[in-house]
Amino acid sequence: MSQSSNDFFVGYLKTPPKLAAFLAVVTILLIGLGIGGGFALLAGQPDYGDGGFKGGYKEHLGVLQAAPYPMLRLPPDEAHPDGRTILLSNPGKRGAQKRAAQHDGKIVDVGGVFITREGTSLLQVGGAAKIRPAQEPAPLAGFVPAADIPLGPVTLRGEIVDTKCYLGAMRPGEGKVHRACANLCLMGGIPPMLAVFHENEAPTLLLLTNAAGEAFDADILDFVAPYVSVTGDLYRRGDLLMLRTDASRIGFL
Amino acid sequence: MSVQYRPVTWTRNKVAYDLVLGFGIAAFIILFLRYVPGWLESPRISGPQLRMRAFGTCAFLLLTILLSIGPLARLDSRFLPLLYNRRHFGVAIFFVALAHSLAVVGWYQAFGPIDRYVALLASNTSITSWQAFPFEYLGIFALGILFTLAATSHDFWLSFLGAPVWKAIHMSVYAAYAAIVAHIALGILQSEHSPWLLGLTGVSVCLVCGLHIAAGLREQEASVAPSVSAPDGNWVHAANIVDLPDEGGVTVFLPTGEKAALFRYDGKVSALSNACAHQNGPLAEGRIIDGCVTCPWHGYQYRPEDGCSPAPFTEKVATYRLRREGDRILIDANAQPPGTPVPPIQLEQGG
Which residue is closest to A168 within chain B, CA to CA? Predict the structure, then answer.
């Protein structure tokens, strides 16, 4: 290696001017390329949707059903001719099972904030009401929520997500990087859903239960995040689609 | 060079190096978090996730640059100043990677039914599935290595552990890089199919591997010196006198597998081990400054006649016996113990 005395660097001596100029150019290039790489990554990020906490705190009157996951049933109205089914969760990565158990089948007031993405919502329970016996149950007197309607066997492809993060508690609340978080949510009791994606329209979301229509067990954690194929029996509860299946009928694509 | 251990022995160059490093990292993070999301069409990502990406991307880019410095300096000595303070670079990478990890643990692992640090290990355990593989484990492994390297980066540890052990520990930075590439490949590349993400990861791998292969090929071009048997030693051809640069060094590849550094200075020629006692820097690529062989990596100095650092410093390297045969220099391939005085070849007196 040839090296003139003009470009030999010794840390505790003054840097030769020619070498200092070279280093300045290299440094500017490196910092520029690094920052350019960061720009490119941000520009290349996909859109994680408009999901988020929306509408502020409100209280809702309905009939509480604790199984397979806590949900509020509302009678049919103009916008929801089949009735409305609202899934519930606690704050954080926790389901509302404990809070809902004592009110199963009863008319309740549920306070909370909706987490909404592309028209689908989940209600995070909280505020003054949380879940309590209805203070004015009269409007729902005599309302009996309709039983589940079987729609037949299906095989669907999509991603298993935890409902809360996917609908906007986190962005992104889906995909492999979110897998550990989604599993923690499911372990905490947040309802799992299968998101079936379509071109140019919002995904279809189906609540997942075991074959008996009860809450899924820990087996589902193995299938969260990667694309999967799920075979099961489709049901409808109010305006909520539910897919009864088990881990043996779920496979990675 | 130092005769006592201080946290950092500051020099003008070290201050400039650290300022530039700090400025580069700060500029990247601030632009990534604060300004770019506004300049570009909003990607609608949450703040904590943006922080994870900012620190993670920054650490990966920094590690790519760090691993490129070594082979770049082998290919072109003008990059050696970047090598000079590389340990500060490594410590900075650890802290940026730590910030990435804390952002992940503080958001994805928090607010759950189990402790966030337990959750990091327990929330995804599908190690037999490549689709669902817990890529977080690879990140934890890499962070552990980066921490070990940062914690043992000081010269105290180099002296305490000894150069071979210290060097072996610090070579694990390549395992950390491989784990981080796998962390990215089994993590975000599996869920997001941005050509930029894939492209930047690919460019990093190609750059690091390509530069190392190029530097390795250049080393291989040098051949081992031919042997000349003699009863008083294992003498081999070292160099032709006409090829010796004035005040500079020549690398001699010995049949023992060792390398010697042959220096011409003040009309004399001496040979030392090519490996600096500090970090095995290539002494033959150094210069004679103030009458001493000066290492190109960190400026450690040795007297060419006995391989000892000038007082008050205490470092020593092995020396080699030389013999002149006409227009060429022969070297005894068997090294003398570090610090052994060996009379130099006097060129003016005809050896």
Answer: B46
